[in-house]
Write a structure and sequence with these properties.
Helices cover about 80% and strands about 0% of the residues. By secondary structure, the protein is an all-alpha fold. The protein has 3 domains: about 80 residues, Four Helix Bundle (Hemerythrin (Met), subunit A) (Up-down Bundle); about 35 residues; about 40 residues. Helix 2 packs antiparallel against helix 3. It starts with a helix and ends with a helix.
Length: about 170
Amino acid sequence: MEAPAVIFYVLASIALLAAVMVIWSRNVVHSAIYLVLTFLCVAAVYVLLRAEFVAAVQVLVYAGGIVVLFLFVIMLVSLQDTLGPRIRLHATVSGILGATVVGLILYVYSRGPLATERLLSVPPEDSAGNLQSIGQALYRDFVLPFEIASILLLVAMIGAIVLAHQKH
């Protein structure tokens, strides 16, 4: 087995274990730390795939920003068990959905290797670099959706500030 494959399997195993610990951990702060570990392992897999920009965004946005936001919410909100007796129903439905997803993944895996020749081919114009290709696609082909997403995020941030200010 090649070294990148071994590294991938190690990272995938750590990410899977950390993701399971996010769910099973009783302490919400520990769950957030396991979530950071999961995000870091996924970023390392992106580095193996030579998608360095996506790995950097994964670390900065998810492992940095989103988890800090989760921790602020955890610290500010009093966490109480609001599900009560419905927790068994939710656990049953989640277990069935999880088993279905695992079954589908195993089914696809048992069918043999996927046809990746077409997915891995790089057009000659994109051979300049990973970051340059992303920049060209983002600012040439997807300018309008990028700007709409920016405006929606700005409106959501202003709304959150107004709602938080009204409570005090």
